[in-house]
Specification:
elongated, single chain, two-stranded antiparallel ribbon
């Protein structure tokens, strides 16, 4: 991975999640992990929370 240009597109990340049971909804929480001395001064955008509903559709965000 390398630096992301301003207004550039990042790389696609695919994530498969296996659940216990068949819940009608799941809350997916993701945090940004910084390494190599990289710093983001806006810590407010490091966490993403997505409510995933059981619709049978693929989710993109």
């Amino acid at each position: 991975m390398s630096a992301l240009d301003a207004d550039g597109l990042g790389e696609q990340v695919e994530l498969r999640v296996r659940l216990r049971g068949e819940p009608p909804e799941v809350l997916l929480e993701m945090d940004t992990v910084w390494s190599g001395g990289v710093v983001d001064r806006n810590r407010a955008n490091d966490r993403q929370r997505v409510l995933v509903l059981e619709t049978g559709d693929a989710y993109y965000f």
